[in-house]
């Protein structure tokens, strides 16, 4: 039997709850009392006869022992269920206190050690068994990130906060938050880093560097506006608005409903093996004359249209 089938079969088994065990304990106790009374009447109803009564008593004794064992078993099982419930309740209350304590520590920005302890406390919940509390803890960390790092990722607790969210994301969890990082009005600009475990992330202004130097990797839930993007593997679509994309590997292109005024500039990028969803004549203007290229052995392809002459707007390299 496969593991999936085994798990499915186990899930179909009846579950005996605390209330069931309590009802069974009471029922078995009443039944045992009635059985003892019936046995007493059966043994002594016709008067006292030592030898006969002894034989009758010996005949019913094993059944009495079994009934007492049943009552004991049901009672112990009921008490065990009560203890488990109380232990689970105490554990939930403990985790709720951890959430409150983590939120309190995270709000003490003037005390760095408290902030670090707050992130560590919330990460315990983020990776814990309680899904609801884990999401609430991730929400608190995401709110901290938005509040403290909206204009710059150069923050002493960025790595800790981002790592705690990533640990939740690795378990399939996600905060109910969308974050916006904006340094478009800053003269100094900024460098953005990957963040996981939230709904959406918008980067406005600043620089993004992939590859060995930066390590930034694109995500489907990322949005870019007025960003300088370097050396990254990109699925080029409407998520990239008015950004400068340079020296990147273009994996796919889908601009079917793209407004021209919001198009990014693409320079010096590698289109080898890139997949165009549908070819648009605007691509000639968008990609030509900007040192974009492809390898002769790996030309781009087009899924829905007849492929154009790629060399008419892209450089060819051997």
From TrEMBL:
Transmembrane spans: 21-45, 57-78
Official protein name in the record: Pentapeptide repeat-containing protein
Keyword entries, A-Z: Membrane, Transmembrane, Transmembrane helix
The organism's taxonomic lineage, starting at the top: Bacteria, Pseudomonadati, Pseudomonadota, Alphaproteobacteria, Hyphomicrobiales
